[in-house]
Amino acid sequence: MTDAPRSRTYSWADQRMDPEQVKRLTGLEFLQAIVAGKLPKPAIADTLGYTLTEVEKGLAVFEGGTDEFLYNPLGTVHGGYAATLLDSAMACAIQSTLPVGTGYTTVELKVNYIRPMTTRTGMVRCEGRMIHAGGRIGTAEGRVVGREDGKLYAHGTTTCLIFPL
C-alpha cells in the first residue's frame, strides 16, 4: 500500500441534443445511434467508465471495469456502481421497445448484491432484459456478470413510467 495520491482524467461529449431529433426516433433507434457513435453517450458512462455495447428490442448490454477509483472505504467496488449498471441496462431494455415520441423514467429499482467486486474481477457485463412494456408501465430484469469468471455479482429488477415526450 502506498500513500501516493492517484489521479484520473477523463473527458465527455457535449450532451446537448436537438429535442425534435430525439422525438423522431424510436427508443431502439436512439440507443443504436449511441452505440454507433452518432449520438453522444451519457456523461455518467464516461465518469464511471462503462459503455453501452449492444442493444436490440428488449435487450441492452453495458460493459465496464472494476477499477480502484470505484472503491468504497472497505476496499471493494461501491454497490452504487452495480446499481448504476443495472439501472442503465434495465431501463434501456425498456426504452428499446418504445415507439417514436415516447420517453420513460425509473420509478423503482431493486438490487441484490451477490458477491463483492474488486480490481481482480476485471470487466463486468450487465444485461438488461425487458419483461413487460405497456402503455404506462415497463418492467425489466438485469444481471451483472464477470466477463472473465462468469460469476454473478448482482441482479435486479426495475419499474419504469412510460410517457409521451
Task: Explain what the structure shows.
The protein is an alpha+beta fold and 165 residues long. The protein has a single domain (20-164), classed as Hotdog Thioesterase (Thiol Ester Dehydrase, Chain A, Roll), CATH 3.10.129.10. 22% of the residues lie in helices and 35% in strands. The protein contains four helices and six strands; from the N terminus they run H-H-H-E-E-H-E-E-E-E. Strands 1-2-4-5-6-3 form a six-stranded antiparallel β-sheet. Strand 5 and strand 6 form a beta hairpin.
What is the CATH architecture descriptor?
Answer: Roll
Give the strand line-up of the largest sheet: 1-2-4-5-6-3
Number of strands: 6
Going by helix content, strand content and strand pairing, the class is alpha+beta
Cα-based radius of gyration, to the nearest Å: 16 Å
How many separate domains?
A: 1
* Beta-strand share of residues: 35-45%
How many helices? The count is 4
Mean pLDDT, all residues: 94
CATH topology category name? Thiol Ester Dehydrase, Chain A
Q: What is the name of the CATH class? A: Alpha Beta
